[in-house]
Amino acid sequence: MTIFLVDDDEDDRKLFIESVIEYDKDITCIEAENGDKALLYLQDHDNPVPDFIFLDLRMPGMSGRQCLAEIKKDTRLRPVPVIVYTTSRDVKESKELMQLGAAHFMSKPEMPDDVYYMLSVVLGEKWG
Predict the structure, then answer these.
(1) What are the respective helix, strand and coil percentages of the chain, to the nearest 5?
(2) Which residue has the higher pLDDT, 122 or 88?
(3) Is the pLDDT of residue 4 over 90?
C-alpha cells in the first residue's frame, strides 16, 4: 500500500509518517510539500498511483482545494480516495470539498496517538 501525503508543514509530515510506520511498517509513504509538487509527481505516469492521498488544505501557492480539483480531473487519479487533512473545522467547507470529490475531511490531530487512530479508521474502511 502507498500513501501520498501533501502538506507544507514539515513537522506535520514527520508526525504523520511516523504514525503510518507505527500502524504498518509495510506501507510506503511518499510526500510533497505543496500542491504544485504533488501534481508533478502524480501526473508523471512513471510513478505508481498511490492507494490514498492525504491532502492539507491550507498551503502556500496551490491550495489543497485547487490540488483536489486537479486530481479529480485526471481519469487515472480520480478513483484514488483523497482525504483532506487540515486544521480547518469548517463544516460548510467540508461539505464543499466532499462535493469536489474528497473521500473524507479530517481535522489534523495534535497528538501522535490521535494520528494513529485516524489512520486506523481511514485505512480500515472498505474502499471500492
Answers:
(1) 45, 20, 40
(2) 122
(3) yes
Length of the chain: 128
Q: What 3-state DSSP class applies to 5? A: strand
Q: Measured between alpha carbons, how far is residue 108 from residues 2, 41, 89, 116, 125 in Å?
A: 20, 23, 9, 11, 19
**Which of 107, 12, 15, 102 lies closest to 52 in space, CA to CA?**
102
Q: Which of 44, 109, 117, 57 is nearest to 83 (CA)?
A: 57
Residue ranges per domain, the chain? 2-124
pLDDT at 86 over 90: no
- Whole-model pTM? 0.90
Q: Can you tell me which residue has the cell 506535520?
A: 12
Share of the chain above pLDDT 90, in %: 55
Residue 28 gets which letter from DSSP? Answer: E
- pLDDT band of residue 128 (cuts 50, 70, 90) is low
Backbone phi, then psi, for 100, in 5-degree steps?
Answer: -75, -10
Contacts of 94 (CB under 8 A, 6+ apart): 84, 88, 105
Quote the CATH superfamily of domain 2-124. Response regulator (3.40.50.2300)
